[in-house]
Specification:
Layout (H helix, E strand, L loop, with lengths): L1 E6 L7 H14 L3 E4 L17 H19 L6 E12 L5 E11 L6 E5 L23 E4 L2 E7 L13 H12 L5 E6 L7 H16 L3 E5 L1 E4 L2 E4 L3 E4 L2 E5 L6 E6 L19 H4 L16 H21 L4 E6 L3 H13 L5 E6 L7 H14 L3 E3 L3 H14 L7 H22 L2 E4 L3 H6 L12 E2 L6 H14 L6 H5 L19 H13 L4 H7 L3 H10 L14
Parallel strand pairs: 1-2, 2-3, 7-8, 8-9, 15-16, 15-18, 16-17, 18-19
Antiparallel strand pairs: 1-14, 3-4, 4-5, 6-7, 9-12, 10-11, 12-13
Helix pairs in contact: 1-2, 6-7, 9-10, 14-16
C-alpha cells in the first residue's frame, strides 16, 4: 500500500485553492492513502474566525461542494484523510460545538468524520480549549486489510500538560480488539521551534516501537504572523528514519508500506527519552552558566526560518518595499542582511541612517560599508536639529530638566517618527530590529525602537544574533563588516555609552532569560546552575517591565 504525504502550504480559509488542489489529486488518480495536515480544509490557527457566522457559512458551503466532488468521482482505489472542523450548529447557524477531526473521503462516498483530537493544547501560542471540544477516544481505521491508528498533532505527546495519553489509550484499544497496527498516522499543524524536528522524530520512534509499526507524520507549511509552520514531514520505522520532507516548502512524497512481515524494523538501543518534558529540556549548559552554542546547521535552520517567516508576512500583508533603520550596530545589520538574502524579484529594500550628536563617525562608516556590501540604497536623515529643537521647546515650556532618560528616549522616538514618515512616502514596511534579550529586560523605548510591523530578531537572544552574523560572514563571503560584529554594543544615546553599563554581559544574561522565560526556573534554580545571584535578581526584576526602561536598542 502506498501512502501519499501532502505537505501543503495554503492561506487560511482559501477554500477555492484547497478545493482546486484536491481536484488535481483526484484527477491524477494515484492509488493509495492520501494524507493531509491537521485542519487542512480551513487552515490553522483560526482563533475567533472559526466562530464567525460568515466563515462558518462559507466553510459549510465548501464542505458540501467537497462532498459532492468525492461522491461524483468513482476512483475507488484512493482514500483521503483530511484534517478539518466538524461543526454542530443551532438552527440559526451559530456554533454549539466544534471538533478538530480527521475526515475520511473515499471517491464515490460522502465525507465522514472518523476521529476527533483528544489533547487540546492550551499553553504558549495555543488556545484550543477556547474553541474545540475534546474527542471521545482512540480510533483504528480499517482500509483494504490495513489497520491504521489515528492521531492529531498534540495527541502524540505524553506530558504533564494533559491528564490522558491518547497513545496509551490507542494501545489499550489494540489489545482489546486483538489488533496489530500496520501504520500510525499523525496529522499535524505543528509550529516551528528551533531544534524541534529531532525531538518530534524521537517521540515518533518511541511510538513506532511501542506499536511495532511505522509512524507517519505530516505537517503543514506557512507563516501566520509570528507563528511559522515548517513542514518537515517524515516516516519512521522503529528507530529508522525512512522518509524526510523539506522544511518551509510545500511538497509531496510517497511511502510504500512493505509486506506485513517486513514492515517493522526492530528497535535499537535508544536514549529512552520520549516525554515532552524530557525532549524539551532547557538549553542551558549544565556545567556552565550559558546557552548551548548554535552549530553551523543550527544557524542555517534559523536563517531559513527567519527569511521564510519574513517573506510570508510581507506577502500576506501585501508589501514589496522594506525600510530599515540602520545604525552601524549588530542588530540592524543582521536584519538588513537577512532581508537581503530573502529578497524576491520586484522587491525593494533601503536603509535609513539617522545619526544624533552622540553617533560616532565609525557608525556612519560601517553603515555605509554594509549597504555597499549588500547593494542596498543608503539614505541619511540626521536628527541633530530635531533633537535640539525638541530640547529647546521643552526647556521653554517646562521647568523640569531635559536629561537622562528624557534626552535618550526622545532621540529614539524621533527616529521612529522619521522611519514611518519614509514608510508612508513609498508604501514600505518598517521592520523592527530589537532582539529578545533587550525586549525581555525593557532595554527599549516605546514608540521608538519598538516600532516596526514585524520583529525579525524578536525570538533571538543577543548572543545568538552575533553567532548568526558570524555564520553568515563565514558562509556568504563576509557580507557584514567585521567591525560591526567586534565593536562593543551601544545605543549611542549618550557619550561613551555601552550596553554593559545597564545589563550583564549578554552571554550570561541570555542564559538567565532562557531559564526564566522559556523554562520558568526560579531564581534559586538559576543560582544553583552557577549564575551570579545579583545578576539573576536584576534580570528577574527587569523581565516584569518590558519596553519601559531607558534606551534605544533598535539603533544598535
Amino acid at each position: 500500500m502506498k501512502f501519499h504525504i501532502h505537505q501543503t502550504h495554503h492561506t487560511i480559509a482559501d477554500f477555492q485553492g484547497i478545493k482546486s488542489y484536491l481536484e488535481s489529486i483526484l484527477e491524477q488518480g494515484l492509488p493509495g492513502v492520501h494524507i493531509f495536515p491537521e485542519l487542512f480544509l480551513c487552515g490553522y490557527p483560526l482563533h475567533d474566525l472559526c466562530l464567525q457566522k460568515s466563515f462558518i457559512e462559507k466553510y459549510q458551503i465548501f464542505m458540501s461542494e467537497l462532498d459532492e466532488l468525492f461522491r461524483g468521482n468513482k476512483n475507488s482505489d484512493q482514500l483521503f484523510l483530511l484534517g478539518g472542523i466538524k461543526y454542530e450548529l443551532t438552527e440559526d447557524g451559530l456554533p454549539l460545538k466544534l471538533l478538530n477531526v480527521i475526515f475520511k473521503a473515499v471517491p464515490g462516498s460522502s465525507l465522514e468524520a472518523i476521529y476527533a483530537k483528544q489533547l487540546l493544547p492550551n499553553y504558549d501560542i495555543f488556545d484550543e480549549m477556547k474553541y474545540f471540544s475534546v474527542g471521545s477516544g482512540p480510533e483504528i481505521l480499517e482500509y483494504n486489510g490495513l489497520k491504521i491508528g489515528l492521531l492529531i498533532c498534540e495527541d502524540m505527546w505524553s506530558s504533564s500538560f494533559h491528564q490522558k495519553d491518547p497513545v496509551h489509550e490507542l494501545k489499550l484499544l489494540c489489545e482489546e480488539k486483538g489488533a496489530s497496527l500496520d501504520m500510525v498516522v499523525n496529522l499535524s499543524a505543528s509550529p516551528f521551534v528551533f531544534g524541534k524536528t529531532e525531538k518530534r522524530m524521537d517521540r515518533a520512534k518511541f511510538i513506532s516501537n511501542h506499536f511495532e509499526s511505522p509512524f507517519l507524520y505530516v505537517n503543514r507549511v506557512g507563516g501566520e504572523d509570528e507563528i511559522l509552520f515548517d513542514g518537515q514531514s517524515f516516516v519512521v520505522n522503529g528507530d529508522n528514519v525512512e522518509l524526510e520532507m523539506p522544511r518551509f516548502k510545500a511538497d509531496q512524497a510517497t511511502y510504500e508500506l512493505q509486506d506485513k512481515s517486513l514492515k517493522y524494523k526492530k528497535k535499537k538501543k535508544g536514549s529512552g527519552a520520549n516525554t515532552w518534558e524530557q525532549l524539551f529540556a532547557a538549553r542551558i549548559a549544565s556545567k556552565s552558566p550559558k546557552l548551548d552554542p548554535l552549530t553551523p546547521d543550527d544557524c542555517e535552520e534559523v536563517i531559513e526560518a527567519l527569511c521564510f517567516g519574513f517573506q510570508e508576512y510581507a506577502r500576506k500583508n501585501g508589501f514589496n518595499r522594506f525600510t530599515i533603520a540602520l545604525s552601524g550596530g549588530m542588530d540592524s545589520a543582521l536584519v538588513l542582511a537577512l532581508i537581503k538574502l530573502s529578497l524576491k524579484e520586484g522587491q525593494y529594500l533601503e536603509a535609513i541612517y539617522m545619526p544624533s550628536i552622540h553617533s560616532s563617525p565609525l557608525s556612519h562608516e560601517l553603515s555605509l560599508q554594509l549597504c555597499e556590501s549588500l547593494g542596498i540604497p543608503f539614505k541619511s536623515l540626521p536628527i541633530k536639529f530635531l533633537h535640539s529643537t525638541s530640547k529647546n521647546l521643552f526647556s521653554q515650556t517646562f521647568p523640569e530638566s531635559f536629561e537622562g532618560l528624557t534626552d535618550e528616549n526622545v532621540q529614539s522616538r524621533l527616529r521612529g517618527m522619521l522611519i514611518y514618515t519614509r514608510s508612508n512616502q513609498i508604501g514600505s514596511m518598517v521592520v523592527n530590529t530589537s532582539n529578545k534579550s533587550e525586549l525581555a529586560v525593557g532595554y527599549s523605548t516605546q514608540y521608538g525602537d519598538s516600532v516596526g510591523a514585524i520583529s525579525m530578531l524578536g525570538d533571538l537572544y543577543k548572543s545568538e544574533v552575533f553567532t548568526i552574523a558570524k555564520h553568515i560572514n563565514k558562509t556568504r563571503n563576509n557580507l557584514i563588516p567585521e567591525q560591526i560584529i567586534t565593536r562593543p554594543p551601544s545605543a549611542e544615546l549618550r557619550p561613551d555609552q555601552v550596553d554593559t553599563e545597564s545589563l550583564p554581559p549578554y552571554e550570561r544574561l541570555d542564559a538567565i532569560l532562557e531559564g526564566l522565560l522559556t523554562y520558568r526556573h526560579s531564581m534559586k534554580d538559576l543560582v544553583e546552575f552557577g549564575f551570579k545571584k545579583d545578576e539573576v535578581e536584576k534580570s528577574s526584576t527587569c523581565t516584569g517591565r518590558p519596553n519601559i526602561k531607558d534606551t534605544n536598542s533598535a539603533q544598535l
